[in-house]
Amino acid sequence: MVLSFGLGGCAATEVAYVSVKNYTQGEYYLQNEQYEDCIATFGREIENYPYDANAQFYLGRCYLAVKKNRAALTHLKKAVTLDQGNPDYHFWQGVAYAANGKTRSELKSYEEALAIKQDHVQALVYMGHNRFEAGQYRASLGYYNRALQQEPSIPQALYNRALALRKLNRTPEEIEAWKTYLNAYSDGTFASRAAQYLNEYGHFDYRNHVLGKRTVTLHQVQFAPSSARILNASTPSLKELARITAHTPDLVLHIVAYQKNNLKLAEMRAKSVKKYLLDQERGMSGTRIKVSWFDKPETVKIGQKTYYRDSSINFFGQAG
Q1: Bridge-partner residues for 312, per DSSP?
Q2: Do the domains 208-319 and 22-118 match in fold?
Q3: Of 10, 60, 123, 252, which sits 20 to 30 A from 298 (CA to CA)?
Q4: Topology adopted by domain 208-319
Q5: Pick from 269, 196, 291: which is nearest to 207 by CA?
Q6: Is the dihedral angle over the CA atoms 263, 269, 271, 273 positive or is it negative?
Q7: How many whole angstroms separate alpha carbon 295 and alpha carbon 262?
Q8: CA distances from 283 to 17, 168, 177, 247, 252 (A)
Q9: How many CB atoms lie within 10 A of CB 311?
Q10: Are 42 and 65 in contact (CB under 8 A)?
Q11: Which residues make beta-bridge pairs with 315?
């Protein structure tokens, strides 16, 4: 009994040590995208320590990263079997089930993760995805909201929450959700689509602008009342616009200002924006930025609808 207990104690200590080492090593491989090295290392590790859940877990994660989904599921299921109380294992098992097209088992795995840890953010987000794909938009919205209570700036949850609201025809909430998403993430394809949804409703807080070969989503330029002083809310987008223009040497940027019944104010605002852009990129030639202004509303056509904006700044770029 004493000998058996002593051997058991040594073995448990050894496995615990290996498990900690595996955690550190596994996270390193994942963060640095060294997936093949990860697979080789943990493949050897489970030969020596087949009952170490962490080794099975990281081997499964790395197989998943290289889209060897069946192998990934095999090892992630083993990790869950070896450690039923780890919500991360259940969550990633769910991701592997999803990769193998097993949506019911995917759902069950997320539910198991949340039963262990009800505020598990990843499980909440992916439960939202699962329910959205199943057409259960109200349920998906609930999961996204719960995830955002824990971490308010999760991009997938912010974007898909707005989509769920769109599916539920909760338009005022949807509009605010798109604005919230764009306030946090105004770059890339999803931002472009979010701005398009907003514009379709006649909201132009953000717009897509064609600059040569690329489309850029920018916050509307806002000014102090009856002046050409640019407000701080507009400066991040203008700085990005200045950077893009400066680093695209063949681009000629056009600034077009509209101000109903006030040509002078339109002129001042167009020139104010040009000055701001040049101040951000001192080496950029002013000849690459053209300005024009009008004392009438801007006409914006979106689909079958036409909107008239009494005061606005528009941008477009042409290859020189």
Answers
A1: 258
A2: no
A3: 252
A4: 60s Ribosomal Protein L30; Chain: A; (3.30.1330)
A5: 196
A6: negative
A7: 5
A8: 57, 50, 38, 11, 15
A9: 18
A10: no
A11: 255
Q: What is the pLDDT of residue 207?
A: 97
Tell which residue, 246, 266, 245, has the closest CA to residue 310.
Answer: 266
Reported pTM: 0.86
Cβ density class 142-175: b for 16+ within 10 Å, e for less: bbbebbbeeeeebeebbbbbbbbbbbeebeeebb
Q: Which two tokens stand for residue 190?
A: 């999803």
What is the pLDDT, as a whole number, of residue 19? 56
**What's the CATH number for 22-118?**
1.25.40.10
Instruction: Report the length, in residues, of the chain.
Output: 320
Q: What is the mean pLDDT of each run of 10 residues along the chain (320 residues)?
A: 30 45 83 95 93 94 97 98 96 97 96 98 97 96 98 96 98 98 95 97 97 95 97 96 95 98 98 98 95 98 96 92
Q: What confidence score (pLDDT) does residue 1 get?
A: 29
User: Sign of torsion, CA 27 28 34 36?
Assistant: negative
Looking at residue 24, its pLDDT comes to 84
- Alpha carbons 157 and 124: distance in angstroms, whole number: 9
Q: What is the pLDDT of residue 20?
A: 55
